[in-house]
């Protein structure tokens, strides 16, 4: 009878159901809690890729613009980056093709430094400046062509703005001091065009900075390191707020730049020399000095620099650098589209989330374990470290706002000392002589 009364009254029925649920919870939940105390406490598990939804993943170095030059001659009106290039009749056969919009989305990239690069061997002292401008131009046109996916950025705030809009912040870098043709005027105008880092050399020496191949030359050449005028280049970069990239430079230049720069510096795509001895990698004493000066090394994935061809080998470099600099000075600079081989497990730009998962788990593919990276560590690796460096470079720029631009010309003696004084394509070398 009473049940019939209850069933006929909906309010009463709801109240009874709630009462029963509360009673069950009161009994079951304490048992569950007691049970969980019975087991040893476990660290909270998370998958590393979650971090990429919390902070922007910023990659320091991608050579897509150079691929577009090689494959499309920079003619992009009929080129579709928003397609699977692995199935494109031409791009599918290009061994340096690792990037397209679908794979960038899969890779959860938040920001990319796109590199305006031209070879130094055939352009230095010739048409390097014009050729670099073409690469800056094609990068800007690609960014404009995909406004729903890419957003031009030239500041740390710009990166965060794009990230909030769920677009890939697209920044421009120039790789190689040969691109400024020993002229501060060109450096300043590159900044106005949006260039936010300059790699001081590629694989050729400039008159004012040695490139890393000198470290391997036999017999050892007489080194110029960073010249007196080279110091003016880095001070002008400090004044402008352009990040100084010391990937590709010689050991001596790394040391000189760290000694003289007023702002933290970056390696946009370099790995650890102690893990694999290659002149493109960074020695431990330089890593220590880099950390002391609050800079960042963004780790390169290229198997020939890493010294192995799997994702495990890349992780060994990350772990080594973490052991030397701590977690505040590491980032990622995959060098995609700039290399013909990529590691197994990091084949293209779609694979970053797998790397983050493995770092959080602390297990290599071989089963070997290492100290897992915490959520906070991975946030720093992904992007917070680069953002900190970028902001510091901007702050130093703002503090130097009263400083006049450097106006001096590179002295003729520096061309002589670098053995490049006789340059038929350069005019008015006399100007440098007084
Ligand atoms: Zn490079």
Automatic annotation (TrEMBL):
* Origin: domain of life: Eukaryota
> Where does the signal sequence lie?
none
Gene3D superfamilies given in the database record: Metal-dependent hydrolases
Q: Which reaction does it catalyse?
A: an L-aminoacyl-L-amino acid + H2O = 2 an L-alpha-amino acid
Q: Known InterPro entries for this protein?
A: Dipep_AS, Metal_Hydrolase, Pept_M19
Where would you find this protein in the cell? Membrane
Biological process according to GO: proteolysis
Under the heading CDD domains, the entry gives: rDP_like
What are the UniProt keywords, alphabetically? Dipeptidase, Disulfide bond, Glycoprotein, GPI-anchor, Hydrolase, Lipoprotein, Membrane, Metal-binding, Metalloprotease, Protease, Zinc
The way it spans or sits in the membrane comes to:
Lipid-anchor; GPI-anchor
Q: Which GO terms describe its cellular component?
A: side of membrane
Molecular function GO terms recorded: dipeptidase activity; metal ion binding; metallodipeptidase activity
Protein name, entry field: Dipeptidase
Q: Which organism is it from?
A: Anopheles gambiae (African malaria mosquito)
């Amino acid at each position: 009878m009473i049940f019939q009364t209850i069933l006929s009254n909906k309010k009463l029925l709801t109240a009874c159901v709630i009462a029963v649920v509360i009673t069950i919870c009161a009994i079951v939940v304490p048992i569950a809690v007691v049970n969980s105390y019975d087991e040893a406490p476990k660290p909270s598990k998370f998958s590393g890729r979650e971090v990429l939804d919390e902070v922007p993943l910023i990659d320091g170095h991608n050579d897509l613009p150079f691929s577009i030059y090689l494959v499309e001659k920079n003619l992009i009106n009929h080129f579709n980056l928003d397609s699977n290039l692995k199935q494109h009749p031409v791009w599918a056969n290009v061994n340096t093709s690792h990037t397209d919009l679908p794979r960038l989305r899969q890779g959860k990239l938040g920001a990319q430094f796109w590199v305006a690069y031209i070879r130094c061997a055939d352009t230095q002292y010739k048409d390097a400046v014009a050729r670099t401008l073409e690469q800056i131009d094609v990068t800007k046109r690609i960014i404009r062509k995909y406004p729903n996916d890419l957003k031009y950025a030239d500041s740390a705030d710009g990166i965060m703005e794009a990230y909030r809009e769920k677009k890939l912040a697209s920044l421009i870098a120039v790789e190689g001091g040969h691109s400024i043709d020993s002229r501060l005027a060109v450096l300043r105008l590159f900044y106005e065009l949006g260039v936010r880092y300059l790699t001081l050399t590629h694989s050729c020496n400039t008159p004012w900075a040695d490139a890393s191949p000198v470290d391997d030359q036999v017999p050892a050449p007489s080194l110029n390191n960073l010249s007196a005028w080279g110091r003016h280049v880095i001070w002008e970069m400090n004044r402008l707020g352009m990040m100084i990239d010391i990937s590709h430079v010689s050991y001596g230049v790394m040391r000189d730049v760290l000694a003289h720069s007023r702002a933290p510096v970056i390696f946009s795509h370099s790995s650890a020399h102690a893990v694999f001895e290659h002149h493109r990698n960074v020695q431990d004493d330089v890593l220590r000095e880099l950390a002391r000066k609050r800079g960042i090394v963004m780790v390169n994935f290229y198997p020939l620099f890493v010294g192995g061809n799997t994702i495990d080998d890349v992780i060994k470099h990350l772990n080594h650098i973490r052991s030397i600099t701590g977690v505040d000075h590491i980032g990622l600079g995959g060098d995609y589209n700039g290399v013909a081989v990529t590691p197994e497990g990091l084949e293209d730009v779609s694979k970053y989330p797998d790397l983050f998962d493995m770092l959080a788990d602390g297990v290599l593919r071989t089963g070997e374990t290492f100290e897992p990276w915490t959520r906070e560590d991975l946030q720093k690796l992904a992007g917070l470290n680069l953002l900190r460096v970028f902001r510091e470079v901007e702050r130093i720029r703002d503090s130097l706002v009263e400083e006049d631009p450097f106006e001096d010309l590179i002295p003729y003696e520096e061309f002589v000392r670098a053995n490049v004084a006789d340059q038929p394509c350069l005019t008015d070398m006399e100007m440098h002589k007084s």
